[in-house]
Each structure stands twice: as structure tokens, then as C-alpha cells.
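Sample 3 of the quickstart, ligand iron/sulfur cluster:
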Amino acid sequence: MKSQQTSESSSVINEIRTLKKKKNAIALVHYYQSPEIYEIADFIGDSYELSVQASKTSADMIIFCGVRFMAESAKILNPGKKVVLPAVTAGCPMAETADASAVLAMKARYPEAAVVSYMNTTAEVKAVSDIVCTSSNAHIIVNSLPNRQIIFVPDKNLGSWVAEKSSKEIILWNGFCYVHNKFMADELARARKLLPDAKVVVHPECPKEIRDQADHVCSTSGMVKYVEKSDAKEFIIGTEMGLIEMLKKKFPDRKFYAVPPGGTCLTMKKNRLDLVLESLKTGEPEINVPEEIRVKAKMSLDRMLEVCK
Ligand code: 13P
Ligand code: SF4
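Result:
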């Protein structure tokens, strides 16, 4: 999969590759990154797969091309490594809707409930949670718990999807992803009529009216696997544009359309090649998590990895 490279970007790419070797660094890249960032990836994946890679790498430095909660999770799981987020302001607005004190206040109202926090949360929220989940395993994690009540933080859409797959009482937080929440159900219905043979595949961060029209609901890497196995020639995809662009390149004989109006995660796109190069040279901006929070957050992440192994 080659993106169109200028001679300037290909010289930066070569410099990054050389420096990665010299510094024993790896680049973990989320599917929503720009095509230029794919070029320097050692591993491309969804948030669950990237956390597994981070937990087992023997590299000295992890260059995390994603958003802050992903880089924080890498540091939590593998504290001996230097973790760097090239664009220091690359945050997830949804993760920032939940803070630890509000989660604890919710827990005090439902003392019997387990707190399941989505990977898209701060380290502080993970530290006060019972277990973490990602979009690829949220229903498995919830159903693995003995508690009848579950406080699900922070995505109300993912939480409502889990509620459909579980007999437990799911208490929803009022967060959502601005990229997935804005897909339009009536426009999707129109697209389905125009493309009757297309398979509709959407992320569980989409609202119910979108999920209900889908042939399949899954995480970003679940989408890649679904397309790989499917005989269909056309797909309408409900997630961030980066994944759709990647699918177009990986499967040039198929057609991919976005659920209208499409969506770009602006903070994911803040990582750029020049920032990656700078990070490799300087080891900055480094992501650190206070030890007391890290140890507790690691317990919640380890529980997820244990359930899913
Ligand atoms: P994945 O778990 O599918 O990687 O999704 C992460 C994310 O931020 C989706 O918006
Ligand atoms: Fe956060 Fe949405 Fe961006 Fe994912 S796509 S990182 S949930 S804002």
C-alpha cells in the first residue's frame, strides 16, 4: 500500500526509518492516521491490537501515532519504555468528557455496579474503573463480570450497543464521539437504496439508528477482516475517513463509500511526518503517568487483556 510521496516526504520517511533502527524504536499507528504515517508504521491496528503490541514490545521507544489515551495506555502497560506522542495536543474529545471524580460520584450512586471504562478514557478514569474494554471486546468484557449493574463510561452509543448484547443493566454515561455521532440515518437509508448490493459496516460508536441499518457492527480492525472475508464488491462504511481511505488502497477492486456525511477525527490527523521525525530525535513529547495512577489503571487494563487472551 503506497501513498503518493513527494521527494521531500520520502526523504523524511527514510530518515525516520533509519532513526527508528538506531534508537530501537517502533511506531504503533492507529487506522485513523493519515496515509503518510502508515508509511513509517511497524504495526497498524485498532486500539485493542495496539495496546497488545505496546504491552509486549522489546523496543526502547514507542512512537505512538494515535491520540493521547492510546499513548497513555502504552505507558501504563509497559512503563519501562519511553512513549512519545508526536502531536502533543492529539486528544480524544470523548475521553475528555469523563473525569475520575465524576465517575466515583456515579459509583457512589450505584454501589453494586462495576465500572467498565472504554479504552477512550484518561489514565485517571481507568484507575477508578474495574475493567477496561475496547470496541472489539466491550460486550465480552461486560458479560464476563459477575455484577448485574454496569456503569459504562463514556460512550453512550457503544454502551447502548453492549446493552443490546447483554441481559445486564447498563448505566450510560452521556459521552459520544463527534465523528460517529453525526452520521445521518435518513441519508444512510437513501444510500442503501442507491447501492442495494453494498454491505453496510459500521463502528459501535455510531448511534442506534445507524447500527440498526448495518449488516455488521465492529471495531476498525473488524471492518478490515469483514471486507477480507466478504464476496461483496461495494461497502458503505460508518467510521472515520482514514480507515475508508486505507480500505480503498488495500482492496482496489472494491468500492468503499462513507456513511453520509462522512467524518474526520481532527485530532488523530495532528500527527505528521515532521513531528514523528522530531520526536525520534528528541524523545519528546514524552507521555508519563503518575505511578500511583499507573498501577491502578494497569490493573484495569490487565483484566481486559486476561479476559481476551
Ligand atoms: P477502535 O477501538 O476501533 O480502534 O476505535 C478507537 C476509536 O477511537 C474509534 O473512534
Ligand atoms: Fe475520539 Fe472519536 Fe477521534 Fe475516536 S474518532 S479518537 S472516539 S474523537
